[in-house]
Design a protein that fits this description.
The protein contains no helices and 15 strands. A 5-stranded mixed sheet has the order 1-2-7-6-4, with no helix packed on it. The protein has a 5-stranded mixed sheet with strand order 9-10-15-14-12, with no helix packed on it. The protein has a 3-stranded antiparallel sheet with strand order 8-11-13, with no helix packed on it.
Amino acid sequence: GSNVTKVPTLREDGAYYLKIPRIDGPVILDLRLVRDISTVNVLATEETGSIYGNLTLTGEITTAPIKITAQYGTEYNTKLILEKESNDTTLKSLTAQEGTITKVTGISASIYEIEVDSRVTEITISAEPTHENAKVRVFGDEGGYASTLTDKVINIENKDYIDIEVLAEDGVSQQTHILDIIRTYEAIVDNVK
């Protein structure tokens, strides 16, 4: 395992909150609070199945009761809320100024389609990941990831598709969403007399 040092935030309700990396199995906590606090114990409960620092994560969010003992013996109970970083790589929205984008259903891949006139050489897209801390980019874009793409102009000459990548909050999980470009051709009819 690896050691990660993180500082929890103290919420208004007195609970401590901490976002942690996605890991399976038990988390060994070495809880140290500053100032006049001498010990922090994670209390055993049926839900957490732990005591004194070994905590089994029960899902995306694990709440563990803790007892804080101050330097001069004062004790109080509160809770520690651990939330795993999200691995959500889905798109909340994907739109284009040049037409309606539809999601292809019934397949495991994430594929979208847009119909554009065959003479169109650029499309302007906007994309937003579902999770607020995920990031998105167009594959091959030198600009890197952003929290959203807004009115991103993409040259589609000689392209049949665009890859849109979403990187989850955990910094590891990634998914490529494919936007297929379907070109429509207007029939040219000559008036023959």
